[in-house]
Amino acid sequence: MKHSDTDVIIAGGGLAGATLALALARVAPALRVTVVEAFPLSADALPDSYQPSYDARSTALAWGSRLIFEELGLWSRLSEHATPIRHIHVSDRGRFGATRLNANEYEQQALGYVVDNRWMGLCLMRALLETNTQWQAPAEVADMAPSGQGVSVTVKAGDETRIMTAQCLIIADGGRSGLREKLGFQANHHSYDQNALIANVTTSDSHQFSAFERFTDAGPMALLPHGSPSRAGHQSALVWTLSDKELEGVLAMPDSDKCQRLQERFGWRLGRFTRIGDCNHYPLKLTTVDEPVRPGVALVGNAAHALHPVAGQGFNLALRGLMTLVEQFRLAAEQGRPPGDFQILRRYHELHRPDWQQTVQFSDSLIRIFGHALAPVAAARDAGLMGLDLLPGAKRLFARSAMGTGGRRAVINGPAASDKR
């Protein structure tokens, strides 16, 4: 095999890219991995202690994702600031349909967790600094072309341009991936004609580690427990679906009016809304790529599929895909084959495809079913929600989807990862 600068280049050092780099370091340590990230990385920037911010953005991790982070030796540190979800309440506003999931019914400590993105990133960076992973930051992958060694990757860092050779390029630069478009991957976009407003809120009643998924005539909204991992508090992470016009109106309101409008839409299950933090928002759409692999290159994470946040499945689906890819790279290394071998990448896609198809269908169908205001459809979905409580088998399947244990998840068979503090 001809010499290359590195074996795997990961374009993007966000949550997906950093997790992939750590998994490769744990499972296939012989592979040389280089992460190219637009933001600077410095060990000096990692604080000795983490102080959560009220306005921190967060991610919902399913129980299956906890198992993945345990395998990577990261969970003991992550769990220091991971708020457990012990109950999930799903309801249809103004109608009788509802279902409830409780962790103790499935003999689990939690159905999932809510973790600040910044804390997750800091944990990943600390772990990666203990590996042989190489970083090019701040820098970006500007282009890629096939070469004798696998791929030839153009990396730009300020005014400097460098050509790096690698056996495989992994594109993990997010849902707005410019590199995906530049390399000609065909992305399918379906707009929901809605926006997600993201904020943290405080309520007069404690969340009691409960997550609420509330479907309304204006779209779904979710409240996830946020804050202390051991003491049930009053702060929740809000995902509020709004039309363009509604979003414009809500953003123009003072905070007291935002809380009142939210109260009208959500109800009183958590008492009165007393505070809403900084509001961020983005348009909602379903993005998929039918063929996310080519010889020497693969899309992962949101670059490969971006979902509606209604069921909190996006990052959890990405994690399962990353582990499937890592397992194929491990097998390739054992066989003396380059990770960019198209058969290796195609096998990864074949294994991951049923999971993302099932997850996309699950998330998208919730939006379509609960988006109908017609009385017969509304009655049918309410009966369906009630039926979940009455039919243990159906409820168990629903719970497996919520917990991220229904899809295929690769088992790491590489060297045991030590769960370092």
Stated plainly, the CATH topology is called: FAD/NAD(P)-binding domain
Regarding quaternary structure, how should these chains be classified? single chain
Write down the domain tally: 1
Structural class: alpha+beta
What is the number of E strands?
21
Q: Percent of residues in beta strands?
A: 25-35%
Low-confidence runs of at least 5 consecutive residues:
371-395, 407-411, 413-421
Major sheet details? 9 strands, mixed
Mean pLDDT over all positions: 84
What is the assigned CATH homologous superfamily? FAD/NAD(P)-binding domain
CA-based gyration radius: 22 Å
The 3D shape can be described as globular
What report would you give on this structure?
- The chain is α+β, with helices and mostly antiparallel strands and 421 residues long.
- It has one domain: FAD/NAD(P)-binding domain.
- Helix content is 34%, strand content 29%.
- It is built from eleven helices and 21 strands.
- The strands form four sheets. Strands 5, 6, 13, 14, 15, 16, 17, 18 and 21 form a nine-stranded mixed sheet that branches. Strands 8-2-1-12-20-19 form a six-stranded mixed sheet, covered by helices on one side.
- A hairpin with a 2-residue loop joins strand 14 and strand 15.
- The chain is globular and about 65 Å long.
- The C terminus is likely disordered.
- Pathway: Cofactor biosynthesis; ubiquinone biosynthesis.
- Belongs to the UbiH/COQ6 family.
- Keywords: FAD, Flavoprotein, Monooxygenase, Oxidoreductase.
- InterPro entries: FAD-bd, FAD/NAD-bd_sf, UbiH/COQ6, UbiH/COQ6_monooxygenase.
- GO terms for molecular function: 2-octaprenyl-6-methoxyphenol hydroxylase activity; FAD binding.
